[in-house]
Amino acid sequence: MSTRKLLVDVHTHVYLPRYAAYLRARAVAPRIFSRPVPGEPDVEEDRLLILENEPSGGRPVGPQVYWDKSQKLAFMNRHGIDVSVVSSANPWLDFLPASEANSLAKELNEDLEEFCSSSPDLGSPTSGGGPSIKRLYGLGLLPLVSEASLSDVLKVITQISSLPHLKGVIMGTQGLGRGLDDEELEPVWGEIERNGLVVFLHPHYGVPSSVYGGRANGHVLPLALGFPFETTIAITRLILAGVLDKFPSLKIMLAHSGGALPALSSRLASCIDHDPVVASRLKHNARYYLGRLYFDAVAYGPEELGFVSSAIGRSSTYDDPSASASAIPSLESEGKLRVLGSSRMLFGTDHPFFPPLKATDKWKSVTENLAAINAVAGWGDEEIEAVCGGNALRIFDLV
Amino acid sequence: MSTRKLLVDVHTHVYLPRYAAYLRARAVAPRIFSRPVPGEPDVEEDRLLILENEPSGGRPVGPQVYWDKSQKLAFMNRHGIDVSVVSSANPWLDFLPASEANSLAKELNEDLEEFCSSSPDLGSPTSGGGPSIKRLYGLGLLPLVSEASLSDVLKVITQISSLPHLKGVIMGTQGLGRGLDDEELEPVWGEIERNGLVVFLHPHYGVPSSVYGGRANGHVLPLALGFPFETTIAITRLILAGVLDKFPSLKIMLAHSGGALPALSSRLASCIDHDPVVASRLKHNARYYLGRLYFDAVAYGPEELGFVSSAIGRSSTYDDPSASASAIPSLESEGKLRVLGSSRMLFGTDHPFFPPLKATDKWKSVTENLAAINAVAGWGDEEIEAVCGGNALRIFDLV
């Protein structure tokens, strides 16, 4: 019984109406505010300010993409996307006091369940027939903020597990305020693992903006570099803390194809190998852990995706902590790594971000990622179908 | 007339004796100090503290690797390295007031010229005979610090150009204190370009350490991630400032295979394409500029080097600023990109950093980088020889 060819978007965001209303009531970032359109003083526009002092006063925001379900479905239809695994967009609940974060998390998880369960049926995902699946599934929110009660967080994991259309959680990098390598989070990882939920690890803070200097570069540096750097640091800290050793069935999917982790994984292994503080602590070579993770395929180029795939594919040869670079002397053997690695990569769009500057039928951020998947050297039809949808059906337990 | 097969190390550092004496006289980082060896109170060891609050009180340092020329040559002999293009190690002159930086730069450049010119002859690098080359060449220092006089900096460029064994400069990322995208540096780029010198762009500061959290991870996070992040930010800021457009013959070589630049170059292109502040400013797509740069081959894995090579090789197809991901649907065509890209990659060791934890004949940091070069899928003998030495002979103008 094989699965149908489906296009499943695992990286697509929403600000649910309850959340947007929260942002609209705020006087400091994150917030939504109205201002006259530059040059058109009589026309008002809504702006979303995620961080204070963003260039251009934040970005335009409207119901058409940010919180209207019919518009999300229209976007999916226009781009041939069958199923979306929707998650709240950053900054999630990070800015709220613990009690408010806890109550809002539970409400937003119920809202997201309703958002998904009321979406259209798609029919059976398997060619042999079987129960229908929906067009929308979701990743819930945990009240992971400073001063959060661990038992509250564990209860929300139970809540999410009980909601049939939520398949995991989206998570930032701050945890209880001390990062994801905080030992206090171990019960959280255990509970997520036990419930088979996927953690979608997503950046928000980037790195401190002092590193970008004073020239006006819009959002380019924090988005193009800061976001992937933050993800890379967070997952590396998790690896160094032994979380992947302790929770071998924990499913973590990294935003933006893991940021810089694949490109720096051999350097990381070498630095660990040469550092007495860390060298003896891990069960495996740093490169090994890439085969334990999942990666969205949001990297905008076929060479990038091919490389991520190779870095995943080689992981099993780095079981030994002090393993050296293995010899892969032919394109054919690298092609085999790429086939192996493709099983852990999943199509995504990052919608509703990267809106086109000019009116267009299809968003380049979507078409470029799709074109990249179709152009990876070493991927055949089977790998392309897996990355486009088959992997998501399996990893998010939709079949 | 072809060149001999030579192994040329383009990423290898030295603290010259004059510089080490400077560090030894200091009471705050960067400095060299003596302390009893832990557990052996009667034995003193020298420690190098590059940044305040480094874990483990810095790292062991001694004449055997840091400033003794015969030991550098012994290291080269042991690893089969024919020629080293030696550069001062970070933090260079960054911590000095402008007048001291200026005088010390000039003295250290003379010292380095003497260090190299007094090294053994290697014979002719060309198989057809011709003048002999030396075992050691060098990259000089510019007094690029806050408050530096631009005319002093330009004079030191002239000095370096007049010293026959200095072939370029090593440069950190701070420039005159405002980063390398500072418009005031344009005369510096112009003068470096006019003199045909290579800029070796090398990190020192990483990113602010607040992002690493509180767990003890030794030097791993700042070295494995912070260093390449800093390089990536610096070169991206240079690209966004149009420096590569304005100085088309400027030769910049990036440390650590460009850090995360290749892996994030398509994301960078997409972010630029979607940002009105930057979209119309550049002459080319972000991916294009990788074909204008040089990359050391210090990435510790064959898949990493192969990918960097592909990212360089594809650059010419991204001439147009708004170009989309190109289709490279076969391993053969990716192999062609890799052949193209290999012409801009150069073997390096990062010596004397990454010393082995245990006594060993050969340093793993060297053997692993060399094994990686030899195992890149798609590179044949010609590409391997070029990356190992032929490219360096050409780019540093040694033939």
Automatic annotation (TrEMBL), chains A, B:
Gene3D superfamilies: Metal-dependent hydrolases. Keywords: Decarboxylase, Lyase. GO terms for cellular component: cytosol. Residues 165-398 form the Amidohydrolase-related domain. InterPro entries: ACMSD, Amidohydro-rel, Metal_Hydrolase. One of its GO terms (biological process) is secondary metabolic process. Belongs to the metallo-dependent hydrolases superfamily. This is Amidohydrolase 2. It comes from Thelephora terrestris.
